[in-house]
Write a structure and sequence with these properties.
Elements: H1 6-9, E1 10-11, E2 22-26, H2 37-43, E3 48-52, H3 69-81, E4 88-93, H4 95-111, E5 117-121, H5 139-148, H6 153-157, H7 159-177, E6 191-196, H8 204-208, E7 218-223, H9 229-232, H10 234-247
Parallel strand pairs: 2-3, 2-4, 4-5, 5-6, 6-7
Antiparallel strand pairs: 1-3
Length: 255
């Protein structure tokens, strides 16, 4: 059974007990909470920035991995539902965008206080499908795919660290690649989609289909860059998040 201790799942790099809004960050496949440390720095103390730490990486490296998106979403939903209620924006990159969507859907259906907005980055819409089997490749093949995504250069320079991370990366690739298209799944919160114009994992057309998954407002913004465009475009992405958080002060909750 998955350990639901909030102390293991949630990181607050810059605690902001007086904040009136919250930003919850969902890492990408194989990613860890520390990827979002610069985001926490940029938005604290104006927002309570909460970053998820998945099992099987960094300080949780000895814990069993979660093998599918639904199990991930159920665990995260339970952890976030126990948090003190604040107007909240979800921000997820790649696999994190799927998880943000699935958790938002569960929270909107009675599991807890849902987010007011979802910012989905670097991921095609939940109803789209591709025949992807990267998780079945050997270690060299998997590593080659990771490198094509132009991930954080510093992390990829250390071969030993990367290879130590391969079990978590392969596990998360499997979770994403076996995720069944959810064409009829819809959330009420607005969805903002951010993508890189050279991202091999999501075309503009696939990203536009996120609008089929919300009854609220939808917008898409394209940036120069590949799958990890948000590293090079950090200032612009943070500006997008600031705008989403600012709307929380102006828009009453529908729940």
């Amino acid at each position: 059974m998955t350990d639901l201790d909030p102390g293991k799942w949630l990181r607050r790099y810059h605690p902001a007990p007086g904040a009136e809004v919250r930003l919850v960050c969902f890492p990408h496949a194989g990613g860890s909470a520390s990827f979002y440390r610069p985001v926490a720095t940029a938005h604290s103390p104006a927002a309570d920035v909460v970053v998820l730490q998945y099992p099987g990486r960094q300080d949780r490296h000895r814990e069993p991995l979660i093998t599918n998106i639904d199990e991930y979403a159920e665990a995260i939903t339970a952890v976030l539902a126990a948090e003190p209620e604040l107007p909240t924006v979800f921000f997820g990159h790649s696999m994190g965008a799927l998880l943000g969507f699935e958790v938002a859907h569960r929270l909107e259906h009675g599991a807890g206080a849902p987010p007011r907005a979802l910012v989905a980055s670097g991921r095609r819409a939940p109803g789209t499908a591709r025949d992807e089997r990267v998780h079945l490749l050997d270690d060299d093949g998997l590593l080659a795919d990771v490198r094509t995504l132009n991930g954080a250069a510093a992390a990829l320079e250390d071969e030993e660290i990367v290879r130590m991370s391969l079990p978590a990366i392969r596990n998360d690739y499997r979770a994403v690649e076996t995720y069944p298209p959810r064409r009829d799944r819809v959330v009420d919160c607005p969805i903002a989609v951010l993508i890189g114009d050279e991202d091999p994992k999501s075309t503009v057309d696939e990203s536009l289909r996120w609008k089929e998954h919300t009854t609220g407002a939808f917008r898409l913004r394209t940036f120069r860059g590949g799958h990890f465009y948000l590293v090079q475009q950090a200032a612009a992405v943070n500006a997008e998040l600031t705008e989403e958080l600012s709307t929380l002060h102006r828009t009453p909750s529908a729940h």
